[in-house]
Here is the input.
Amino acid sequence: MRITFLSDNKTENSKCMAEWGLSILVESKGKKLLFDVGASGIFADNAESLGIDLAKVDAAAISHGHYDHTEGMERFCGLNCDAPIYIHKEAIGESYALDKNGEIEDVDYGIRWSGEFKKSVAPRLILTEGVTKINDNMTLVGNVPLLDEYPMTETFFRRSDDGWRADPMDHEQFLVVEEERGIYIISGCSHKGVMSIIYRVKELFAGKPIIAFIAGMHLYTLSGEKQREIVNAICGLGVEWVFPVHCTGMEAIIMFKENLGDRCVAASAGKSYEC
Here is the structure.
């Protein structure tokens, strides 16, 4: 399997740009899947700089309904006219966070597609819920149950007829790629919690070793003590490689490095890895 980071918060490649966003090209068993499309068209510019033809992508998948993973979709559709787009049925909508004073911000973090684009892309959307098989060895898993001891790292809100309601983030989904050696987990932000994701994988793919956990983990909002607890828990579950990206946070990345050494890969935009 090969993964190429087309968009991330950082880059070490002088030919590529960085942004607060994520986009990963996954290549496995002759199939190419684009996981998320970043916060702009930067993922496509970086792909061009790397000599990657996005017209040859077989399918795209959206991890959750936030702008920094979806805003490049119109650019992708302009480059690729055929690939189906897998997105959770509840992903499209507004999403708001709390500011430092505990008030709801006047900033929409949700999908910001125009009405015109929503209409044009609708025939290509495959609306998901729960477990969705993409092909023989790629599966999307959504509606992840929360673990009581590991709550969500941040609360988002959506409007309802009764006012604001907490977004349970059921529209978040992660990708599992099955290879001969074991399985690979790819997650966008892990708002439902990295431990919830890993335990769900162990339930659905029982007995299969986890070769790599490739994810934005949204740990930077937690206390150092809580980050250490989660990092130690992940490392204790026998995950062979960890690729902490996007919203993980530098403090947690250092903790992973301390635990795993070279088996923690701090990937960035423009980097490719054979796993």
